[in-house]
Amino acid sequence: MSNRMTFWAIWLMALIPIVGAFIMYFGDVGIPEGRTHHGELVVRGTQASDLGFPDRLVEKPVWQVILVSSSDCSSCELFDSGLDSFHTAVGRERDRVAVLQVDLATTTTLESAIWIIDPLGNVVLKFEPSINPTLILRDLKKLLKLSKVG
Length: 150
Description:
By secondary structure, the chain is of the alpha+beta class. It contains four helices and five strands; from the N terminus they run αββααβββα.
């Protein structure tokens, strides 16, 4: 093989993955449907203050798991009764997490839900109150493992 053919073969091997990535990204072709989170991802850039949460629910910046509940939410009451157990289940990272409850009337959210907010005030995940708390715990532990903030 000549030097010119080797040169173009190397360039072609480098360009094929790049072109494939462009097609996948801009054409939405071949993107896997699988996911590892159990909650609903919140639109990027949504701040806790946008949803009506008070500015300072905790003194130091930590991850927050906030239960927004109304008086007629039975699944909220079940999660509320296990808030201390949930915080204990976080394990050795519990110093980085605050588990709180907020009344639905004090926020601008439209429904009862469980929210995960990062230490910078960004809303990350939303869960239905009827979800198994173990799934919330899995997502939270994954966020704590991947995050260097808080």
